[in-house]
Amino acid sequence: MDSVVFSPVFASRAAAQARLAALNPGALAPGGGLTRYPATNLAAAMGQLEQQYALLPFLALRSGRPTNAADAPNLGAQLLGGRGARWITGPKDPTKPVGWETDVTSPTDPQDFTRRFITPLSDYSEWYFPNRLTLDLAAARTDTRGTPFEKTLPVWYTAQLSVPILGIAAAQGVTTEAQYQQYAATTQAALTTHTLPDAAHLDITVTRGDQVARWITDWMQPLMR
C-alpha cells in the first residue's frame, strides 16, 4: 500500500521512531522524520496514532496526550470519520519540544507499545497491515466468481461457512458488534461478540489489560474439547 497516509516509507520511519522512543523516550526526535516540529521521541511516535491526532480512524489508539502542543482542527481526518480530530501544529513554547504525557486510565501504555512495535522478530506495521490485507478486505464479504479476484482469492462459499466466529469491537473504533452480526447473518456460523470499553481500533491488539486475551481463551475452550 502506497498512499499519502500510509506507505512503505512511512512504515519504515514509524519503526525507526518507535525504536528511538523505546530506547530514549525523552530525547529529541530526529528532524525529517515523522514530525515537522521539535518533539521528543515518544511524542513523535505517539502523536501519529493517538485517537485525537491520527490521520485515519483505523490507525488509532488511546494512550495519553501531548504536552506543550498547539493544535488545530483536522478537517480531513474528520471527514474520514475521526471524532473531533485535530493535528499538532508545533510547540506552544518554541524553546521546548512537544512532549508526551501517559494517561494511566487509557487502554494502551505508550512505552509498552513502542517497545513491542519493532523487535528482532517482528514489525507491528507489517504484522497488522500486510499488503495482501487490502485485497482480502475487498473480496472477503463477496462471492468472487466472475470478478478479477476469482483466481487469486476464490471466495465462493461464504454462505456455507459454519465454523464459529469471534468478533471483538472497540467502543471508539471503526467496527461494531452490529457489523459482525450483519456478516454472520450471511453465513451459517455461530457468532460471539464483545466490545472493549473506552478503546480505539488499535487498542484491541495492544491493550494493557488481559480482557481481550480472556475473551479469546474463553471462546476457544469449548472448541478444544
What do these coordinates show?
The protein is an alpha+beta fold. Helices cover 32% and strands 16% of the residues. The chain has nine helices and eight strands. The strands form four sheets. The protein has a two-stranded antiparallel sheet with strand order 1-4. The longest helix is centred in the first third of the chain and has 16 residues, at 8-23. The radius of gyration is 20 Å and the shape is globular. The termini are far apart. The model has no long low-confidence stretch (mean pLDDT 89).
Task: Describe the structure in brief.
The protein has 225 residues and is an alpha+beta fold. The protein is 32% helix and 16% strand.
Keywords for this structure?
225 residues, alpha+beta, two-stranded antiparallel sheet, two-stranded antiparallel ribbon, 9 helices, 8 strands, 32% helix, 16% strand, globular
Mind sketching the topology for me?
Blueprint lengths: L7 H16 L17 H6 L17 E4 L1 E5 L1 H5 L6 E6 L7 E4 L7 H8 E2 L2 E2 H5 L2 H9 L25 E6 L6 H8 L6 E6 L6 H4 L4 H10 L5
Helix pairs in contact: 1-4
Helix content: 25-40%
Query: How are helices and strands ordered from N to C?
Result: HHEEHEEHEEHHEHEHH
Outline? globular
How much of the residues is beta strand, in percent? Answer: 15-25%
Number of helices: 9
Poorly predicted segments: none
Largest β sheet strand count, sense and barrel closure? 2 strands, antiparallel
Rounded Rg: 20 Å
Strand order of the largest sheet: 1-4
- For the secondary structure, the number of strands is 8
Global mean pLDDT: 89
Q: Which class do the helix and strand fractions yield?
A: alpha+beta
Distance between the termini: 41 Å
